[in-house]
Design a protein that fits this description.
Elements lengths: L5 E5 L3 H12 L4 E5 L2 H11 L3 E4 L8 H9 L9 E5 L6 H7 L4 E4 L7 H9 L8 H65 L2 H8 L5 H28 L8 E3 L1 H11 L1 H7 L2 E4 L9 E3 L1 H17 L6 E10 L2 E8 L40 H11 L3 E5 L11 E8 L6
Helix pairs in contact: 2-3, 4-6, 6-8, 8-12, 11-12
Length: 415
C-alpha cells in the first residue's frame, strides 16, 4: 500500500491556502496548513512532512528565517523546502535559496503545472546558486537578519518601557484609591462613633439635634459614591458598554448648571469661572445630557484643580461648520508638559508624584484617582467627538495655562 505523501504549506493568505490545498489534495497529497511561522514550526515537528511550501512575506518570522530554523533541525536538513511567493523583486529568489530553500516558485500558481512542480521537488530537484552567488546573497541575508533583529530589539525596548509605565500606573492607582477611600471612611467611622452615644455627640458638637453629624456622614458617603461611580464609568467605557440616551442638549444651560454647582468651590479658591455668552448662541447637539454633563464637569474640575487661587477658568465655544461645534475650556493654571499632553486622557494617569497627593477636592492640585479626563474622553468619543489639550508647557511660577478643546457633532447618525 502506497503511503500518502504529506505537504506542509505555511501561508497567511486564506485564499492561497485553500487553492493550494485543493489542488494538491486532488492529486492525493495530505496537506497541512499553518498561517504563521510559529505554527508552521510546530506542525513541521509534529507531522514530519515530506515537502514544505513556504511563503516568504509572513508576519513575525519571515519565510527565509523559518527555513533557516528548519535547516538547523536534524530531521529537516534535507527536506525539500520550496518558496512560494508573490515577491519577485531582484534578489528575492537568490536570498531564499541562500537561506536554505530548495526551490523558488511564484504566485499566482499555474494550476495545471503546479502539481508537477511539487512532484519534481519531492523527487529530488534542487535549484542551486554558484559559490559566488551563494556567498554574496548569504551576506545580504545575514545583514537583513541583523537589521530585523535591531528593529525587534527597539520594539521590545519600547514595549518594556510601556509595560513599566503601566505597572507604575497600576501601583500608583492602588495607592491613590487607598488614599481617596481613607478620607470618607474616616468621616463615616468618626461620626458613626459619635452616634453611639447621642448625648455625648450632641455635647461635643454643641447642637440640639444630629444634623451636623448626619451632614458629615453624607459627605463621606457622597465621596465614596463619586469614587465608585468613576470606576464604574471608566469600566463601561473600556468595555464599550456606554449606552446613550440621545436628546437635543443645550450646551449653554448644561455649562451654566455646572458653573452654578461649582460656585462654592470657586469661591473657596477665589477662582473665577466665566461662561461666555457666545455658547448660548450655539445650536443644540444630539447627546446624552447626563453623560455630557459628567464629561464637561470633569474637564472644568480639572481646570479649577490646576489653577492657582485667584485664577480664572473660561468656557467659550464656536460653530465650526454645519454639523460641528467646538467648546474651549481655558484656564490660567500651571500648564501641562508637552510630553504629558498625550497621556493625560489615559486611565489612571496622574501627573506628578503621588507622594504629594491630597484627597482635598478643593485644594490647588487636590485629590483624584486619575479617571476624570479618561471618562471625559470616553464620553466625548462615544458621541463621535474629539477632545485634546493645548499648553505651552508646565510652569508653576508663570502659569501658562491650558486650553481643552471639545468637538461635538450637532447631529448624531441615526441607525
Amino acid at each position: 500500500m502506497t503511503q500518502t505523501r504529506t505537504v506542509l504549506y505555511i501561508e497567511d493568505d486564506i485564499a492561497s491556502q485553500r487553492l493550494v490545498e485543493r489542488v494538491l489534495q486532488s492529486r492525493g497529497y495530505r496537506v497541512f496548513v499553518a498561517s504563521n511561522g510559529v505554527d508552521g514550526l510546530r506542525l513541521a515537528k509534529e507531522e514530519r512532512p515530506q515537502l514544505i511550501l513556504m511563503d516568504i512575506n509572513l508576519p513575525g518570522m519571515n519565510g527565509k528565517e523559518i527555513t533557516t530554523r528548519l535547516r538547523s533541525l536534524a530531521h529537516f536538513s534535507h527536506t525539500p523546502i520550496v518558496a512560494l511567493t508573490a515577491n519577485i523583486s531582484p534578489g528575492s529568489r537568490e536570498q531564499a535559496l541562500a537561506a536554505g530553500c530548495t526551490g523558488f516558485l511564484t504566485k499566482p500558481i499555474n494550476v495545471a503545472q503546479f502539481p508537477g512542480q511539487v512532484e519534481a521537488f519531492m523527487a529530488g530537484q534542487i535549484e542551486s546558486l554558484s559559490p559566488e552567488e551563494q556567498s554574496e546573497h548569504l551576506t545580504l541575508y545575514a545583514q537583513s537578519i541583523v537589521e530585523r533583529l535591531e528593529n525587534k530589539v527597539l520594539e521590545l525596548q519600547t514595549a518594556n518601557q510601556r509595560l513599566r509605565e503601566l505597572d507604575k500606573m497600576k501601583s500608583d492607582f492602588i495607592v491613590l484609591v487607598s488614599h481617596e477611600l481613607r478620607t470618607p471612611l474616616t468621616l463615616i467611622n468618626g461620626y458613626a462613633f459619635l452616634l453611639k452615644d447621642k448625648e455625648k455627640a450632641f455635647q461635643e458638637v454643641g447642637l440640639g439635634d444630629a444634623a451636623y453629624i448626619v451632614q458629615g456622614l453624607n459627605q463621606g458617603i457622597d465621596r465614596l459614591n463619586d469614587i465608585i461611580n468613576n470606576i464604574i464609568s471608566v469600566s463601561r467605557i473600556a468595555s464599550g458598554n456606554l449606552d446613550l440616551s440621545i436628546i437635543p442638549v443645550n450646551l449653554f444651560q448644561l455649562s451654566n448648571q455646572i458653573v452654578t454647582e461649582q460656585k462654592k468651590l470657586s469661591k473657596e479658591r477665589q477662582v473665577e469661572i466665566f461662561l461666555d455668552d457666545v455658547v448660548n448662541q450655539l445650536p443644540k447637539v444630539d447627546g446624552d445630557a447626563t453623560l455630557l454633563k459628567l464629561a464637561f464637569e470633569n474637564v472644568i474640575n480639572n481646570a479649577i484643580k490646576f489653577t492657582p487661587d485667584s485664577g480664572r477658568v473660561t468656557i467659550s465655544g464656536r460653530q465650526v461648520d454645519n454639523n460641528t461645534i467646538a467648546l474651549m475650556i481655558q484656564d490660567t493654571g500651571v500648564g501641562i508638559a508637552l510630553e504629558n499632553q498625550r497621556h493625560i486622557f489615559e486611565r489612571f494617569q496622574v501627573l506628578g508624584s503621588i507622594q504629594h497627593h491630597s484627597t482635598s477636592k478643593s485644594a490647588f492640585q487636590g485629590g483624584g484617582i486619575g479617571l476624570g479626563l479618561a471618562i471625559a474622553k470616553g464620553i466625548i468619543e462615544t458621541h463621535n467627538g474629539r477632545i485634546w489639550v493645548e499648553s505651552e508647557g508646565y510652569d508653576p511660577l508663570n502659569h501658562p495655562g491650558s486650553i481643552f478643546h471639545i468637538l461635538l457633532p450637532i447631529k448624531q447618525a441615526r441607525s
